[in-house]
Design brief:
heterodimer, A: alpha+beta, Ubiquitin-like (UB roll), Fumarate Reductase Iron-sulfur Protein, Chain B, domain 2, two-stranded antiparallel ribbon, 10 helices, 7 strands, about 15% strand, B: alpha/beta, FAD/NAD(P)-binding domain, Flavocytochrome C3, Chain A, domain 1, five-stranded parallel β-sheet, four-stranded mixed β-sheet, about 35% helix
Chain lengths: ~250, ~625
Amino acid sequence: MARKIKLRIWRGSAKEGSLHDVEVDANEGEVVLDVIHRVQATKINDLAVRWNCKAGKCGSCSMEINGKPRLACMTQMANFEEGETITITPLRAFPVIKDLVTDVSFNYQKAMEVPAFEPPADLKPGQARMAQVDVDRSQEFRKCIECFLCQDTCHVIRDHEENKKKFAGPRFFIRLAELDMHPLDILRNRKKTAQEEHGLGMCNITKCCTEVCPEHIRITDNAIIPMKERVVDVKYDPVRWLGSKIRRREEIS
Amino acid sequence: MSENQIPMERHNYDVVVIGAGGAGLRAAVEAREAGLRVAIICKSLFGKAHTVMAEGGIAASMGNVNSSDNWMVHFRDTMRGGKFLNNYRMAELHAKESPERVWELEVWGALFDRTGEGKISQRNFGGHEYPRLAHVGDRTGLELIRTMQQRIVALQQKDKRETGSFESHLKVFAECTITEILKDGDQVTGAYGYWRETGNEILFEAPAVILATGGIGKSFKVTSNSWEGTGDGHALALKAGGKLVDMEFVQFHPTGMVWPPSVRGLLVTESVRGDGGVLTNSEGKRFMFNYIPEVFKDKYADNEAEADRWYKDQANNRRPPELLPRDEVARAINSEVKAGRGSPHGGVYLDVSKRLPADEIKRRLPSMWHQFKELADVDITEQPMEVGPTCHYVMGGIEVEPDTAAAVGVTGLFAAGEVAGGMHGSNRLGGNSLSDLLVFGRRAGLGAVEYLKKNPNRKTVSTESIKRAQERIEKPFTRSGGENPYLIHQELQDLTQSLVGIIRTKNELTEAIEKISQFRSRIEKVSVTGGRQFNPGFHLSLDLENMLLVSECIAKAALTREESRGGHTRDDFPKMDPNWRQYNLICDWNGKSISTTKQKLPMMPNELLSLFDPHELEKYFTKDEMTQVMASAGSR
């Protein structure tokens, strides 16, 4: 049942690297990560690759497979043609550490720059009351497994290192949206800072992030576009914005 | 010496937390909020810990769905689940404190599913009398880990405002492995390890170390655990002079996937059987009818017609035998496979496709449908699943003081979460793991805080202990022509799976112990190709030793306990023995091998005993114990 398949795996360091051809067996039902593990166990013992759960839940095994940002544990070998060479490369938007492992610290830095959730100071444990319909929107964004495929594919930073300083990326636009739409969050100006400090305005809605999201979060439609619209709202109607926050506080107390 | 050429970083903290799952992060929050400087160390990237895999929910008797629920009911359920072998004090603290821990998550930004009144929703689960599990669809673990991760960031932002630096008082060391707990006498002085990214070494000088490293699943071939579950904390504690308790108790879930290989071990929820899924062997026979134990004969149907009627009329029919307790089902599957009636890949078939219309399957089991479709290309509305037991959780772990989570035998060492033992007795209830992480994570943080208040004087790390730790890390590189670590790992997994797995016998356990000692000499000769930088072969060569130590503990404790209870089934001692309930088995390491000793389990105090009907206790206690119980009941 096993078939021989041809892989072309990128190997190297931050300084240099190249594609290596490897032939390896693939069994029925396997995913790309299985085949990479077989290469690691039998041919290249020190091949660097990140992975954890192997069930599409942790977002560790992000890489580019035939140029597309994918989770290796969710990409079935059956998707490829007989005899096709599968090219596996590290995420392009981040600096390589070794082989398929990249330095994703950019994302953790950006996470620190998003002001934390801020509940009303007098909110007591067990006191909060929220309707399911009011938490649905933020719950969609909290499905994010932080695989950073959206960050990798986003053309604002993919080939433009210089934009990274000012641009938080889709992962953090959904975080900002999640907090903005969170019924208990009272921090003001989240939309405004999304635009002015986190680079929301640099996104021109090409939806590439939505297409690669393994959790099928509608990043562009449900987070980025509403946040852009709300920025306009806030700029033109501050009274309405303030009113909405005050009303939310009354509901929870 | 070659190790002198490897750069070494040196850090100084009040508390070092090893592990960044739910327990580790909760401990770190507690210690930081008390004003201490804290390092969090994780083998993976921050936020990828195995906690993320938990689906069902967090058990906490908030009483949001049924107001009759309270800590006493939760306590009773937990003790029954563990077959009364639990450390009663841990079970009591857990039941009392878990509601506060869940509410606290909400104040930190977690968004649980809601009830109609807008409270946190709670769902039913096996062994829990009332709907008790706070949940977010089937991704509760993700919500927990993300909330804790974001809480850590919130504390770092606070530090930034005060000190100008995010990482001045609380720092996450991601992709960093600890290989040694350093000590002076019996007192902790720090921890030593290496950065996975560079292979460079790192020394933490700290008077308190909290172990929160999770489980041991990767010692087994078929497991629902991620690669990180290599028993690191269990091994670190043993080598530092700590003790492991209850290591014979390993939870095997009866239905893990066995095929395709890409999802081997991945859990298939019990709801599949609850909603009509049937188990069949290679002959197409519904075999569970042959495996109904005498004690359950009045509750389970012995023919297909009655079993099928139960789904519509539960009052007048007995339950299908597919819904027997987990250990019974797992044992039956094992017997079918051993008798040569297994599926091609060593499992049996679980089929719901012939029982329910496709739309109904998708409605009732959405995540299962999705998981099989995306990961395995199996449409469960049309095809059967191949399933077999999968190693899911270890009840055993580091012996700790219940209130402070302090490890017995090592001053300054603490443990919380799956790596700690005692809380769950011989079997854990679903949902009790996430609550365990939070309750005892917090207590470990507090334990470290109190310990440092009482013991302000720090001992320094000795040069010799650093040198020993360095030599151990360097070893695999100094050997050449040795065995491949990946292949040894696969062999060890095959061994534990077949000889120390779900069904155990004296002969197989003896054979396993013999083989494990051979592995020890083989592991000492493993060699590594390539350099130090992000080299998974090198990482595995060091993790192997931990998995071997854990496997030896499990095998030896399993050989010693001559009864069957919860997550320990002896084919040669198939019954639960009340005499054995009075003892825990303690594992010690003398530098060469593991020894096990019996340790008397403390008797529950009257106020907890009185929560149970004496007739229930009779099933578990000896006659002598019952005389004692009845005497104290009479005096109340």
